[in-house]
Amino acid sequence: MPDGKLFGQPAIRIDGRAKVTGRARYPSDEVVANPAWAFLVTSAIARGRIRGFDLQEARAVPGLLDILTHDNVGGEAEKPQPMSGGSTTPTLESDQICHDGQIIGIVVAESFEAAREAAHKVRVDYEVQQASASFDSPGAEEEVREAGEHKDYQVGDAEAAFAAAEVTIDARYGTPTQHHNAIELFTTTCEWRDGKLTVYEPSQFVYGLRGSLAKQLRMEPGDIHVVSRFVGGAFGSKGGITARTAWIAIAARRLNRPVKLVPTRDQGFTIATYRAETRHHIQLGATPDGKLTSFRHEGWEVTSRPSQYNVSGTETTARIYACPNILTKVNLVHADRNTPGFMRAPPDTPYMFPLESAMDELAAALNMDPIELRRINDTQTDPATGKPYSSRCLMRCYDEGAARFGWQRRDARPGTMRDGEWLVGWGCATAAYPANIGPAAARVTLSPEGRARVQIAAHDIGTGAYTVVAITAADRLGLELGQVVVEMGDTDLPAAGLAAGSSHTAGISHAVAKACEGIRARLAEAAVLSNDGPMAGLDPASLVLSAGMLRGPAGQSEEIQKALGRAASGVLEVYAENLPKGVPPDAMGKIYQGQMAMSRGHGREDAITYAFGAQFVEVRVHARTREVRVPRAVGAFASGTIVNPLTAHSQYMGGMIWGIGAALHEATEIDPREARYVNDNIAEYLIPVNSDVRSIEVIMVPEEDSQVNPLGIKGIGEVGIVGMNAAIANAVWHATGRRVRELPIRMEHLL
Ligand code: MOS
Question: Which residue has the higher pLDDT, 553 or 86?
């Protein structure tokens, strides 16, 4: 555990003032000289090919500069490589149309308005084929995989155990398409100078963007500079490269002028990724006293025709409860859709919903309290692999959450806790998310004024990463928070990995701490080797930095500025790389090349590392209208060391609020005839507003885990959403006796 005083203390965001005063430069705010404006032309059909364009009217728009299509630039870029491997749909490389809203042209003009007008005047002659929208659409191809072929688990004989079980649950569940809808749009600005390219684009991985773009444009990564100082929400949607970037770079090269793209919100639904709809078949077998004897989980996920992208959340569901017989399997369904991708707790959010609903159904079948059922099946050993958990405080989360929520006052019989016209329901569910960590590098510079500068190509996607970096450096260097300046989001800085998978805080704080330790060691060495200082002759390892001083074990001390003067004639600069346990030795080099490298919570040899939580929800369902309200929710989480409880609270709370939306509001509606998203705007894509969100309580259960990583950090960005879908569905069942197994839960399901 860290011993510093700033670690674990609530701190307001160091970038907060810049954000609320408009000084924070988001990528599309970056100033470039005399930019031209791009507007995307997107496909109006979901499947077929382009016979030809009629560009006459578009070319006549005053201010028009250029129109890019497969006819004139198709060979200039490769398709982007999805981070998940496999392939994705084309854009301007060919005349093929693989989904609605596919980029098929880019219009560039002197103004945004002129580009938009000309784009609307591009006429396209399509050869149309019947498209398949999703599950059950004629022409959708189901790719059935064998258990074990993929990331699946097979332990014991689940089939036989299920057949022999005295109590069973056998049910099917579904989750819808969802889009991230970050406030910031998918902007890109490209500028060329002397054959070198600068890209301003919101990103969760600037080195990844650089590396992928270099491949697409057949350039050296070092000739591309990516800048993303601030990101206005990402949630996974800005993790991998999209097709737009290369074409904007090509547009800028053709014009020899910077080009800026700000796509529309509806275009964001099809030019980037989304959360795919999923289906699940769960079979649980148990003894009459509640011990699980069989667990089967089969999932189906929608993806594009060429992609193999899947989230396979059975990697999480197979290891939540002790069970001797496990069988999991994930299948893909290929349709005429854009390729899906990461979205907050990508595997766990859709896959824990069926498991935690089924556990609630099992508790009801056993006439047992749902928390008791979890307790009976709690484990410190992963049943899927036999490895120990590095730490697992699930039941402590349940105990603390239940106490705060008042769970003992729950009448177990559904439909009994009525308050006037409202049916009251209480539900709970488990949240779990792997503790991941990536390699990272950082440079720390100490100035003669005793101030520090930390440089790291990390990403603050709204999470508070700037502040986490400052806290770590100030804590380690014995400085005030205000004495630390942080630079991030730029490929000119030391590399950090993908800000995703709840891994970033763990990855970057270790790198920053290591560079700070380098500073301390250099100051200490100079101090003990000097002839005249108070620390002369001491063991350098015994010296610490605190409260602006270098201090010895017997109270010797010297101002940090003085100590610096002994070690360096000007500034003192230390670069450090941190390679966490579980990543290959070349992982840091991979990050610099823009490839993902991460130690995953279920990938280590010695232990399984996961954060856990217990989530409690009260719903009120109106007896006549059946509208569902969520007056309160309590989440108790154990995620190891919390670096900044203030922003951690916001992360957990944000996850829980999003969970209310996911369970009750959110779904991207698809026209099955045209394979087209129909509510592609924030007016019709429903998310919770303030009046949908009442009391949200977050409990941070203390947890020390020196095995997960030296600082004990597990990550918190995603676990807060994971249990909410099931907790709400379970509460709705408790209120009404109706078990809704398809999200979102709507009035019509409860009539
Ligand atoms: Mo997050 S969905 O891991 O970017």
Answer: 553
